[in-house]
Design a protein that fits this description.
about 300 residues, Rossmann fold, seven-stranded parallel sheet, two-stranded parallel ribbon, 13 strands, binds nicotinamide-adenine-dinucleotide, Epimerase_deHydtase, NAD(P)-bd_dom_sf, UDP-glucose 4-epimerase
Length: about 300
């Protein structure tokens, strides 16, 4: 009998991690989730997964590795709030760097085969050319993406010790289950506000752009990354730029609520343009984004509608 693969997902009660857990379970894999529920929700956790409420910084993380013996780790737990990272860079680095090292040490001690890491478009900083390719200069401009780049370097170090890895530099991911509180995704904030008759805020003139990728496409890239050559780093985005004004208009049209956003001064350190060239993952792993923005927005709106 072929042994079932055991996947451990850190951050598996969160937005992307929980969708990933659902897909891995569909493929017949055994899924272990480690999440401290600081942002994630118990209701996101697939009933067929084994759930541990634990911090990735906790030395007792080792007990989970010892008991469950995962073959592969998807490392998606992180402090993801850029503004929080500027206000509390030490707290941010503790989770995103030291927490990750704790995960990596356990990978080493318990002979995990591979780790897939959720990195970010933020490692490039303000792009010099668009769509941005993996060979673009790296220049993160705030602590959160600095931690992502730092972890990529640690992954190379652990690779030299025998741990296989793939890092996915995601663009802006959106979809059902994304938080609309705090500095959650702009898509979920706009949808939630419009459905509830509330005004949204747009920072600056709204002409800043982002590359919005639907969560199912982000998950598909993670699954394909299982067969990526060791040490691969891939951009994962649509290659299409959408301005915040355009995004608002699309959601506004879709929800049918004519509420105009409030424009306020731009936030310090915000990137003006963002869009990823993902031809490397297309060529090597045959990944393609399947979801058009309008379709993904409809799915997300339906989820919020049923939730409210
Ligand atoms: N959403 C995006 O647009 C995007 C873009 C690029 C990269 N990423 C990365 O993808 C990953 C998942 O992001 P998401 O949008 O699903 O965010 P999320 O906040 O929904 O998920 C992160 C999860 O990690 C958990 N977590 C946080 N700190 C923890 C700790 N110390 N110990 C254990 N669990 C902890 C949270 O409770 C949460 O469930 C993150 O690493 C994020 O940096 C996300």
């Amino acid at each position: 009998m072929i042994k079932k693969q055991t996947y451990l997902i850190t951050g598996g009660a969160g937005f992307i991690g929980s969708h990933l857990a659902d897909e891995l379970i569909k493929t017949g894999g055994r899924v272990i989730i480690v999440d401290n529920l600081s942002a994630g929700k118990k209701e996101n956790v697939n009933k067929k997964a084994v759930f541990y409420k634990r911090d990735i910084l906790d030395p007792k993380l080792a007990a989970i590795f010892k008991k469950e013996r995962p073959d592969i780790i998807f490392h998606y737990a992180a402090q993801i709030d850029v503004r929080k990272s500027t206000k509390d860079p030490i707290g941010d680095a503790k989770i995103n760097i030291l927490g990750t090292i704790n995960v990596l040490e356990n990978c080493r001690n318990f002979k995990v085969g591979k780790i897939i890491f959720a990195s970010s478009v933020g490692v490039y900083g303000e792009p010099e050319f668009l769509p941005t390719k993996e060979n673009h200069p790296l220049g993160p401009i705030s602590p959160y993406p600095i931690t992502k780049l730092t972890v990529e370097k640690y992954l190379s170090y652990y690779k030299s010790l025998g741990l296989d890895f793939a890092a996915l530099r995601y663009s802006n991911i959106y979809g059902p289950r994304q938080s609309s509180s705090g500095e959650g995704g702009v898509v979920s904030i706009f949808i939630d506000n419009l459905l509830n008759g509330k005004k949204s805020v747009i920072y600056g003139n709204g002409e800043q752009t982002r590359d919005f990728l639907y969560v199912a496409d982000a998950v598909k890239a993670a699954l394909l990354a299982l067969k990526a050559p060791s040490g691969s780093i891939y951009n994962v985005g649509t290659g299409k730029e959408t301005s915040i004004n355009k995004l608002y208009k699309l959601i506004f049209r879709d929800t049918g609520n004519a509420i105009h956003p409030k424009k306020v001064p731009p936030r310090f350190g915000e990137i003006k343009k963002s869009c990823l060239n993902s031809s490397k993952i297309k060529k090597e792993l045959n990944w393609r984004p399947k979801w058009e923005l309008e379709e993904g927005l409809k799915e997300t709106r339906n989820w919020f509608k049923n939730k409210n």
